[in-house]
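Practice set, problem 2.
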Amino acid sequence: MKILVITAHPDDVDFGAGGTVATWVSEGHEVEYCLVTDGQAGGSDNTITREEMARIRRREQTAAANILGVTKLHWLGFPDGVVVPDLNLRREISAVIRMVKPDRVLTQSSERRYDRIYASHPDHLATGEAALCAVYPDARNEFAFPELLSERGLAPHSVPETWIMAGPNPKHFVDTTDMLEKKIEALLCHASQHQEPAELPMRMRGWGEQIAQASLRKNSCFSWHGDCRRINGGFNRNRCFHNSGFWRNGYRRIGFHYIWNSDVRIVLRRLRLTKPECERHQENQN
C-alpha cells in the first residue's frame, strides 16, 4: 500500500503519528510526506534568520523521516503561520496526490479542539481542510485544475481511504508501543524546536498513556470501514455514518479514521535512550 501524509509543518507528523508511520513502514507499506510549509516561523532563537530556520527545519525533518523509514518528501513552500485553504493550496496538494497516487492519505483535522487547543494551530486546520478538499473532489476530478493534466501531465486519482489525526471524535486507535523509541528518536531530530529535550520522553509517555486510556473507552476504536466501490449508480447522495467511521459521498465511499492527537502507546517498560539515530545520520551527512 502507498500512503501519503500531509501536514502543515516539519515535526507535525512525528508528534501526531510518528509511531503509526513507523508501524506502517515495518508492515511493508510505502510512505511519503507532503509538507505545506518549511516551518520558518518555528523555534525561539531570534538570532537565526527565517531563511536559515527553514533550511534547518528541512534538514531536521529529512533526518526524522529517515529514522521512521520515509525517504520521499514533497515540500510545497507555502509561508509558515499564514496558511489558508485557498485554491492555490488545494491545487498543489492535488498535484502531489496525483503524482504519488496513494491508497491512503493521512492528514490533520480541520476541526478545532477546545480541550487540546495546541492541536488546533490555524495552519493545521487550514492544511486539513485543503487536504480533504484535494482528496474530494479536486484530485479525482478531471475538470478541477485542468492545468495539472495539460501542463504537468498529472492524471486524476481517487484516494480510497483518508485518515484524520488530532480530530475531536476518534474512531480508531493504533497501538504503537513497539515503535516508541523510534518515535522519540525522530522527535529529537527537531532540535530547533525543543527548549528542554530531556523532558521529551516523559511527555511522550504521558500523552501515550492518556490516549491509550481513551482508546479503552471507545466501543468502535478498532472498527474500520472504507473502500472505493460504486453505490447507487452514481447518484449524488450524502449521508454520514458516525458509528462505522466513514463518510459516503456521491458514488464514492471515502473512509475516514480519526487518530487522537498522537499515537497510542501502552507503557510496558522503562525507556532507555541512546544517542539518537538522527544525530548519527546528520554526522554522516557532514
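Problem 2, part (b): a different protein.
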Amino acid sequence: ETSLTSLRWILLDLAQNQDVQELVYKEVSTVAGEQNLVTLSDLPQLVFTQAAMMESLRLHPVVPLGVPHGATKDLVIEGYHIPAGTMLIPLIAEVHHDTSHWTAPDEYRPHRFIDPSTNQIRRHSSFMPFQTGRRACPGEDHARMVMLLYLTQILLHYKMILPGDYAKYFPNEDTTIKQSNQYSNDEKIFDAANSTTNSDKNNSNINQQDNSEIKQKCDNIQIRS
C-alpha cells in the first residue's frame, strides 16, 4: 500500500535525522496544543512537517516509474526522434535524484521545500511522487492528508530512534534485498506497544521467544511523556 510504505520511509528518515525529528515534533506539539491532537484544519500550519514528508517522498518514491503515456505525434526531444505511438514512461526516481533539478539530491534536506521569503511550502516542477500530467494520482490530496495525520499522531506519542546496527537497514547499491522475517517483527513492535490491555488474547499467538524479541526491539522506540 503506497501511503503506508511512504509513511514507513518518512519515519525511517526521521529516525536517522534526529535534529529534523525534533523540529517536526516541536511544530506538531505546538499546533496540537493542550488537546494533543492534530486535525485536518491544522495541517496548513505544519509547514516544516510537510517539508520533511515531501523530502522523504522525493528520496524514496514508492512508484519509481510513472504511468505510461503515448506520443500522439512525431517528436524530437534533445536530438532524439520519438515516432508517434511510442510508449513514454516517466522515470520518477531518476528525476528526483537529478543534479540538474536538485542541489545535493541524495541528501535529506527538508528545507529545500520551504520558501525562505514566505516560510511556506515551495512547489517544484520536478517533484512528482504522485506522477505527472493528466494521469497523475487522483488520490494525491487524500494521501497527503492521511499520511500527515498518521505521522503527527505517531510523533506526538513516540520518538523514533534506530537500533545500534542500523546500517543494515540502509543497503548500498551492491546489496540485493531479500525477503526476511524482519518486516513482520517490526510490525509486532507497534502491536506490542499498543496492545497491553489485550495481552491475554495475544498470548495464544505470541510465544515467549517472540515476546523477548519484541521487548528488545521496543527499546528502540521511546514513548514521549
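Answer key, part (b): The helical segments are 2-16, 18-32, 47-59, 92-96, 140-157, 182-194, 199-202, 208-218. The domain at 1-170+215-224 is CATH 1.10.630.10 (Cytochrome p450).
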